[in-house]
Design brief:
Layout lengths: L8 H8 L1 H12 L5 E5 L8 E5 L4 H8 L2 H14 L4 H11 L1 H6 L3 H5 L4 H16 L8 H34 L18 H7 L4 H11 L5 H5 L32
Antiparallel strand pairs: 1-2
Helix pairs in contact: 4-5, 4-8
């Protein structure tokens, strides 16, 4: 090798300590090294030391590379530090999107009503991954999923067309607030609201609907069998909002 004269003191020290660093890394990788962590306590006057065995780099890589492991670690944290179920579902479906779709469990995850149900769904994914032959593709379920996705695309198209009309209307009327009409009756009814409205008289029901949900099809939510006009209906056909309902671009903290 060439002379070290051209190197600075810091660089020389790094080269000198290289062998020692490599030896320590080797020990960590083999799981042979232990280190101590001092733990202080308000009730103790002296520090206690406990031996800890570090995880190997291979173990760390294996765990970080598994979305199921990551999801289960997240659930363990949620059990210790609870957050809203809606937030849990949001994050779990982001972590395990591919697996949930692969095993037709995305809708089950979105409709989960407890942490235990979420955990059970993750366990099913793990079982299918370990024993692929145990998974049976459900053709009817896939048809239902595609029908739901197609309906969502239609509603998104109708929504964009409606927004364009309302923006043009506000512009024609020279309103200062260009989105004035977009906010009128835009609220998606909740499951609780739909149940409540079904018990009301027609006039009262219609008045409340127009006040907050006039952009949405009342027949779709309240009539037996839903809206008879289906695709030809000018109003939005969007499922009532439940505790787990959210759009793909939602940002959910937690």
């Amino acid at each position: 090798g060439g002379s070290l004269d051209c190197l600075g003191n810091d660089q020389k020290n790094k080269l000198i300590s290289k062998d020692e660093i490599l030896q320590n890394l080797s020990k960590i990788e083999e799981g042979e090294a232990t280190h101590t962590v001092e733990q202080s306590s308000a009730t103790l006057s002296t520090a206690e030391t406990v031996a800890m065995k570090p995880a190997s780099l291979h173990e760390l890589y294996t765990k970080s590379a598994s979305e199921l492991n990551l999801a289960n670690e997240y659930l363990a944290l949620v059990r210790c530090h609870p957050v809203k179920l809606r937030s849990v579902i949001f994050h779990i479906r982001r972590m395990c999107r591919d697996l949930l779709k692969k095993y037709q469990l995305m809708e089950d995850m979105i409709s989960a009503n407890s942490i235990n149900v979420i955990s059970a769904l993750l366990n099913r994914c793990a079982m299918y991954e370990a024993k692929p032959q145990s998974f049976k593709f459900d053709k009817m379920k896939e048809i239902e999923i595609k029908a739901t996705q197609e309906q969502k695309r239609r509603e998104e198209g109708k929504r964009k067309a409606y927004e364009a009309r309302m923006l043009r209307k506000a512009k024609r009327e020279k309103l200062d607030d260009a989105e004035y009409y977009l906010r009128q009756g835009a609220d998606v009814p909740s499951v609780q609201t739909v149940k409540q409205l079904k018990t009301m008289q027609s006039d009262e029901k219609l008045a409340l609907w127009k006040k907050s949900h006039s952009q949405h099809c009342m027949s779709y939510h309240l009539d037996i069998g839903g809206c008879k006009r289906d695709r030809s209906c000018a109003f939005l056909h969007v499922n009532a909002q439940g505790i787990n309902a959210f759009e793909e671009n939602d940002e959910v903290a937690g």
